[in-house]
Every structure is written in structure tokens, then in C-alpha cells.
């Protein structure tokens, strides 16, 4: 019996030793495991610097002059936001749903962790917000393999504790909101709020905040665009958690739970949003800027990851008005263009040979993405060309929305050649600040920029440069008279290689006219006579002083606009007249800051005196004549038009002083209008990509019909927007004006505003 008791005692001591040995070894192993993990044995751990500056992939913001983010450059569409800019209900919803004891633990919630361990994770993990932040910042989703997942979980615990020591609770909340991927190119709460609701986070309602917080569970599954039913259910779960945490009342919960999912979804990609053409122009500029402006350590800035802030001169409201004006007019004018091309077997090309047509189509094929891709695949030219005749499914642009269709790539090229394009730029003459920039009708489908890239024939919009030269060189005034009569510059004079005899479009001559009347009616013979007196060299010299960068030949024909110039240069040149003869180089950036708000670059105005105030004002008075009695007079009317619905009539009714000029190039391939009020100069160009694609007649192809209505729509919207303060005042008259500008005019005769006036509309500057 005694022997049996001794054996029993021995067994108990044995198991006790075994237990404590196992306990200490296990504890040691766990401690060693954590130490090894923290030392990076199982993979690199973030350094102190990484924890101090975890946001290493920040989008560069493009900010308008009125403080609106109009676009971003990014690899990840992420813009950081401070905790104080987060609405309390958004923060409370996150804590209530994801980590209700967030403000009580130090990175790891022991209670939730133990509960998850007991249930072997069957009811989900026990990750705190700090742990989820650690995963987002340094590990991502990780491995599904159990052993690796355990290692990752341990690393998350270690990083979470470090984060809790490094940052305040509020900073951790803000960081978590800033790094989460909400899908649809939206990383971070600010991008998500702008993408799904088109507003800043501080303006989110409670139900909108609940939708976004619900996405933290699985942003792909609970995507508001693709899964509204699932998102509504998930939102209501968040609302229930908010009720449980006493953030909202029962009645609020019931009311909010019944609301439908209402989005204002605007995808924030490089090809969507406002000012797309301007943003691409800015991107190209920034590529050069980063080479010339280095970081303190000598490295280049990265516009996609360094979180720069580019403050631009663009006004977001004015930009929106400009884009709306282009869309309103162009979709109407396009209907007329399609209508006129119905019976054209070679549509949209007019009066060109089959060989010329094939050349245009072939060049378009060679410049296409399809050609580039197949060339990279080592396909032969014959194979590539053959592929353009194979029907394929595609999505094409139309003014009624994208269309899914089946056609050959070659047919799609011809289809896109039908579309009229437009370019608009608006500039503040006193500062040179560009306020609006519309480079085309749709950046996703037409990426050529008709403001900064596309130089086109300017037609009669060039004539004010000739008149300005005459006033400066010859001492003439807008009230001086000149004879409108047949005129010829003979071979050898002014470098002409054969006799040049320009004709007026209607083949009529008006006899004695003032310069003001001559410019208003865009009389070709008068422009030719003036350049004959000044010489083309003087006109070219003045045009260069006005900031035009194009190559301009020393030929008299430039008087009629046989010159290719960009919209950007034309607007800047005209702005000199509105700015009392002082040229201001166009500026589109105010300053650039780094992610911490340190100013890296600030624009310095670049100006020069070109004309004295009197001459500049005299040109303004000449240009006012165009809208008083010339091709721009329709800006003064409120009704009229051609009687159909395919183009814009005359719904403007402006009564304030407006200086402007229409222009139409040869065969009406280009239509122009540049209009000015004292504090805003806006130029508009309209035409097809190819000059041989055009309207058959000048009725629709001229600048007064094709381009002027865009200006009218735009200015009407600007005037209705009182925040913009666009001037309706007269242009400032210089003191002691030495040039006669107030000319006698005959009594005005009231005429039918719907009638077509050949003197005002049939302005074919190149009719010979």
C-alpha cells in the first residue's frame, strides 16, 4: 500500500515538471517567435522611417483657382486627409463597425483575439483598426496558407503596437481612411467620396458615410455601382452598429435604412472628369518641370507618387461652362454635318480624289493603337492592313452616348473622320491666367488637343494684326476711309511670285468705307491694300511681338489669314489689345507645393509692351464694330437662325460692349471666333480633323455659324454665374486719346434678324 502511494506521488511530480517545462518552452518559443518576427527573420519589417512616413504613394492633385480638385496624376488615386476634416459620424461609424473598443486597447483587442482563437476564426478575425492599418500599409492581403497567415498575423500585431506608440488614435483613424482601396480607382476616403458622391468627406451624410464604412468589409463585393442591393444591406448593418453604440437613434436608423442607394458617380480617371485636355497638357509640362526642379537630395520628383499639389489658373466653374457650351453647340452642328453628308459617296471628304482619300485613311491606320500593337507582334504590313477589314465588336462614340456595335476598324476610322472638333481657350488679359481650356469634344475618343497642339488656318481673325500695323505704322484711325475696289499686287512686289488679285466673296465692291466698316464686313481688298502699304514684314514683326510662335511667311496673302496658328497663341495675341497694348504670356500654373505644403515653384508674370494704349484701344473699337454691324451682330439678337433644330440659332441678346472677330479659312475647313470683354478673352475654333472633311457651303462652315455660338453659349453661362464677375463694362478709354475712334454712322435700319446677309455671312477670305 505504501509502495502504491509512493508511485502515485512520483507520477504527479513527473507531470508537474512536464507541464512547467512545456509551458516555459512554449512561452519561450512564442517570445522568440515574436522577437524573430520583429527583427525581420520572417520577412522585412517596417523601419522607424517607414512608420514615420508611411504614405509613400500619393496622387498629385491638380487644383483650380477656386480651390476645386479638377484632376490627379497617380499610380494610386490617393489624396491624404487630416482627421479634423473627417465628419464625426463617419469616424464613429467606422469605430462602431470595425473596432468598438478602439479607444481602449493598445493595438490588440485581447477580448476579441481570445474569442476568435476559441472559435478558430469561424466568426471572422479579431483585427483591430490598428492591425488592419498595418496590413494595408505593409502587407496587403497576404497568403491564404495557414502557416504564412499566422506569421503575417503576428507581424500585424507587432506593427500595430508600434503604430499605437508612434501615432495618436485620431492619426491612426485618419491614416486608415487614407489608405483603403474603395475600388473604381478610388484609394482613400477623399477619392472615394469624390468618386461615389462627388463631394468632400466633410459633406457626407450619415447614410453615405455608412455606405463607405460598409465597404471596409470587402470593397469589391460591396461596390455601390455593381451591387446596390448588397450595399444597401451592408449599409444597414453599419447603421445597426451605430444604433448599438448610441451614435444614432432608433428613429434615425429606421429612416436611414429605408433610403435608396443614391450615388453621384464620377469615375476619376485620366480620361474622365473636367479639363481632360488641359490636364494632359499639364502632364507633358510637368515631365519637363521635374527634370529642371530637383528634390533636395538631387532626385527627380515623381508626379504619380510624391503627392504634389499643382495650383492652376483654371477656374472650375468657367471650365464647366466652357465644356457645356462646346457640347451644346457641337452636338447640334454635328447633326447638320451628318445630314449634309448622307448623299456623299466619299463622306466626309469633299472634292478629293480616291488616291487622296486612301492616303488619309492609310495614315490614320498607321497612327492607330491597333497598328502599333500588331507591329510589336512582328506582323507584316499586309497582315496588319488586312486586319482593318475584319469586322469586330467595338464601342464607339456618339453624341447620344457610347454605342456597342460591329464594324471593321477601317470603317470606324472613316466614321470618326466625320466628327467636327472644337478648341476653346479663355484668358484673363490683365494677368495672362488661362481660365478655361477645352481641347476637343471628348478626350476618351479624340485625344488631339486643338488648343495647345493644333495650329489651323485662322482666316479673317488675322486681319486685326494687319489693321493694328497700319494704325501704328501709317498713323491711320478706325474712322479713316479707304476705297473698296479691285486691287492687285504685281509679281515681284512683296516677294509675290505671280500677280495676286484678291476678290471679295460676293464679287462686289462698296466704294469708300471706313476701316471700322471694312473690318466689320471683313473686306478682303481693304486688308490687301493695308498690307501693301505697311509691307508684310511689319505685320509679321508685330504678330511675333503679340506672342504668335507659328512660322509666318513674308507674303501679302497673310492679310487674308493664310497662316496656321494655335488657339492658345491667338487668344494671347488678342488679349494684348484688351490689356492696353501689354502682352502677358499665358500662365496656367500659380504655384506647386510638395505634400507638406512647402512651395517648390511659383510663377512669375512675363509681360512686355507691344503697342501704346491709344493704338490698342483703337483696335478694340475696330473689333467692336464686328459685333455692332458685322458678322458678330447676331450676338445682339435673341431669336432667329436657319429655321431647323440642327444648329444653334441666335439666343444671346448681349447688350454690353463686345470686341471680336470671326474667321473662315479656305473652303470653310476652319471656323473661328475670338471675343473680348474687358476682363476675359475667349477664342473658339471649329473644324474637322482633316481639312478635306468639311461643310459643302459657307452657311454652316463659316466662323459666325460654326464657332461664334460656342462663345455665345459660354458667355451667357458666365454672366448668369455671378460668382465669376465677368465684366459687362466698356473697355477702358485712355486719357487724352490721340486717335479718332468715334466715327459717324448712318441711322440704323431695322431688318429681319433671320435673314441671311451675304455681306455678313459669306466671308470666303480666299475666294479668288
UniProtKB/TrEMBL annotation:
Residues 67-242 form the Glycosyl transferase family domain. Pathway: Cell wall biogenesis; peptidoglycan biosynthesis. Keywords: Carboxypeptidase, Cell membrane, Cell shape, Cell wall biogenesis/degradation, Glycosyltransferase, Hydrolase, Membrane, Multifunctional enzyme, Peptidoglycan synthesis, Protease, Transferase, Transmembrane, Transmembrane helix. It comes from the Bacteria. SUPFAM superfamilies: beta-lactamase/transpeptidase-like (SSF56601), Lysozyme-like (SSF53955). It is found in: Cell membrane. InterPro entries: Beta-lactam/transpept-like, Glyco_trans_51, Glycosyltr_51/Transpeptidase, Lysozyme-like_dom_sf, PBP_transglycosylase, PCN-bd_Tpept. It catalyses: [GlcNAc-(1->4)-Mur2Ac(oyl-L-Ala-gamma-D-Glu-L-Lys-D-Ala-D-Ala)](n)-di-trans,octa-cis-undecaprenyl diphosphate + beta-D-GlcNAc-(1->4)-Mur2Ac(oyl-L-Ala-gamma-D-Glu-L-Lys-D-Ala-D-Ala)-di-trans,octa-cis-undecaprenyl diphosphate = [GlcNAc-(1->4)-Mur2Ac(oyl-L-Ala-gamma-D-Glu-L-Lys-D-Ala-D-Ala)](n+1)-di-trans,octa-cis-undecaprenyl diphosphate + di-trans,octa-cis-undecaprenyl diphosphate + H(+); Preferential cleavage: (Ac)2-L-Lys-D-Ala-|-D-Ala. Also transpeptidation of peptidyl-alanyl moieties that are N-acyl substituents of D-alanine. Its main location: membrane. Pfam families: Transgly, Transpeptidase. The keyword Glycosyltransferase applies. Residues 427-679 form the Penicillin-binding protein transpeptidase domain. The chain crosses the membrane at residues 22-42. The keyword Cell membrane applies. In the C-terminal section; belongs to the transpeptidase family. This is PBP1A family penicillin-binding protein.
Amino acid at each position: 500500500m505504501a509502495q502504491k502511494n509512493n508511485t502515485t506521488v512520483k507520477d504527479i511530480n513527473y507531470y508537474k515538471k512536464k507541464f512547467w517545462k512545456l509551458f516555459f518552452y512554449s512561452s519561450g518559443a512564442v517570445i522568440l517567435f515574436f522577437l524573430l518576427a520583429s527583427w525581420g527573420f520572417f520577412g522585412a519589417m517596417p523601419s522607424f522611417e517607414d512608420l514615420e512616413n508611411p504614405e509613400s504613394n500619393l496622387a498629385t492633385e491638380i487644383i483650380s483657382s477656386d480651390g476645386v480638385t479638377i484632376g490627379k496624376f497617380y499610380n494610386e488615386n490617393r489624396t491624404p486627409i487630416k482627421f479634423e476634416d473627417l465628419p464625426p459620424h463617419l469616424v464613429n461609424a467606422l469605430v462602431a463597425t470595425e473596432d468598438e473598443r478602439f479607444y481602449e486597447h493598445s493595438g490588440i483587442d485581447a477580448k476579441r483575439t481570445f474569442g476568435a482563437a476559441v472559435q478558430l476564426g469561424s466568426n471572422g478575425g479579431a483585427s483591430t483598426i490598428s492591425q488592419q492599418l498595418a496590413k494595408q500599409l505593409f502587407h496587403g492581403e497576404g497568403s491564404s496558407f495557414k502557416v504564412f497567415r499566422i506569421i503575417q498575423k503576428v507581424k500585424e500585431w507587432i506593427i500595430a503596437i508600434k503604430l499605437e506608440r508612434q501615432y495618436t488614435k485620431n492619426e491612426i483613424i485618419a491614416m486608415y481612411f487614407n489608405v483603403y482601396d474603395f475600388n473604381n480607382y478610388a484609394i482613400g476616403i477623399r477619392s472615394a467620396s469624390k468618386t461615389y458622391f462627388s463631394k468632400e468627406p466633410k459633406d457626407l451624410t450619415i447614410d453615405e458615410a455608412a455606405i463607405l464604412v460598409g465597404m471596409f468589409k470587402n470593397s469589391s463585393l460591396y461596390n455601390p455601382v455593381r451591387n446596390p442591393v448588397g450595399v444597401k444591406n451592408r449599409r444597414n448593418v453599419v447603421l445597426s452598429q451605430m444604433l448599438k453604440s448610441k451614435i444614432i437613434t432608433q428613429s434615425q436608423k429606421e429612416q436611414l435604412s429605408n433610403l435608396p442607394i443614391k450615388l453621384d458617380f464620377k469615375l476619376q480617371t485620366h480620361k474622365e472628369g473636367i479639363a481632360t485636355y488641359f490636364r494632359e497638357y499639364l502632364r507633358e509640362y510637368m515631365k519637363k518641370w521635374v527634370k529642371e526642379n530637383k528634390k533636395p537630395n538631387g532626385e527627380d520628383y515623381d508626379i504619380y507618387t510624391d503627392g504634389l499639389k499643382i495650383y492652376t489658373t483654371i477656374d472650375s466653374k468657367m471650365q464647366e461652362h466652357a465644356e457645356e457650351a462646346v457640347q451644346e453647340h457641337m452636338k447640334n452642328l454635328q447633326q447638320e454635318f451628318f445630314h449634309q453628308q448622307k448623299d456623299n459617296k466619299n463622306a466626309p471628304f469633299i472634292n478629293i480624289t480616291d488616291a487622296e482619300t486612301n492616303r488619309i485613311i492609310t495614315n490614320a491606320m498607321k497612327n492607330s493603337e491597333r497598328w502599333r500593337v500588331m507591329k510589336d507582334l512582328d506582323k507584316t504590313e499586309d497582315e496588319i492592313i488586312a486586319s482593318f477589314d475584319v469586322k469586330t465588336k467595338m464601342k464607339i462614340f456618339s453624341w447620344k452616348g457610347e454605342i456597342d456595335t460591329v464594324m471593321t476598324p477601317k470603317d470606324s476610322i472613316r466614321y470618326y473622320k466625320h466628327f467636327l472638333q472644337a478648341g476653346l481657350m479663355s484668358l484673363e488679359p490683365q494677368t495672362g491666367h488661362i481660365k478655361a481650356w477645352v481641347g476637343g469634344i471628348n478626350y476618351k475618343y479624340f485625344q488631339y488637343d486643338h488648343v495647345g497642339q493644333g495650329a489651323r488656318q485662322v482666316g479673317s481673325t488675322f486681319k486685326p494684326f494687319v489693321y493694328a500695323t497700319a494704325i501704328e505704322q501709317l498713323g491711320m484711325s478706325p474712322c479713316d476711309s479707304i476705297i473698296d475696289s479691285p486691287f492687285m499686287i504685281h509679281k515681284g512686289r512683296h516677294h509675290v511670285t505671280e500677280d495676286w488679285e484678291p476678290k471679295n466673296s460676293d464679287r462686289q465692291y462698296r466704294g469708300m468705307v471706313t476701316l471700322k466698316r471694312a473690318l466689320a464686313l471683313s473686306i478682303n481688298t481693304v486688308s490687301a491694300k493695308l498690307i501693301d502699304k505697311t509691307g508684310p514684314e511689319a505685320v509679321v514683326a508685330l504678330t511675333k511681338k503679340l506672342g504668335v510662335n507659328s512660322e509666318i511667311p513674308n507674303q501679302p496673302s497673310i492679310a487674308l489669314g493664310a497662316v496656321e496658328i494655335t488657339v492658345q497663341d491667338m487668344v494671347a495675341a488678342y488679349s494684348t489689345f484688351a490689356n492696353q497694348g501689354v502682352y502677358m504670356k499665358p500662365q496656367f500654373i500659380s504655384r506647386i507645393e510638395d505634400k507638406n505644403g512647402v512651395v517648390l515653384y511659383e510663377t512669375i508674370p512675363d509681360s512686355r509692351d507691344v503697342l501704346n494704349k491709344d493704338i490698342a484701344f483703337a483696335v478694340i473699337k475696330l473689333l467692336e464694330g464686328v459685333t455692332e454691324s458685322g458678322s458678330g451682330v447676331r450676338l445682339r439678337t435673341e431669336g432667329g437662325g436657319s429655321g431647323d433644330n440642327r444648329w444653334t440659332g441666335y439666343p444671346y441678346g448681349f447688350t454690353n460692349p463686345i470686341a471680336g472677330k470671326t474667321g473662315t479659312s479656305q473652303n470653310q475647313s476652319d471656323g473661328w471666333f475670338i471675343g473680348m470683354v474687358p476682363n476675359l478673352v475667349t477664342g473658339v475654333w471649329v473644324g474637322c480633323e482633316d481639312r478635306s472633311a468639311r461643310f459643302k457651303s459657307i452657311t454652316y462652315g463659316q466662323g459666325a455659324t460654326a464657332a461664334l455660338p460656342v462663345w455665345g453659349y459660354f458667355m451667357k453661362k458666365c454672366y448668369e454665374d455671378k460668382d465669376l464677375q465677368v465684366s459687362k463694362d466698356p473697355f477702358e478709354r485712355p486719357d487724352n486719346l490721340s486717335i479718332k475712334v468715334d466715327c459717324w454712322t448712318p441711322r440704323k435700319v431695322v431688318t429681319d434678324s433671320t435673314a441671311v446677309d451675304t455681306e455678313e455671312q459669306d466671308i470666303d477670305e480666299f475666294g479668288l
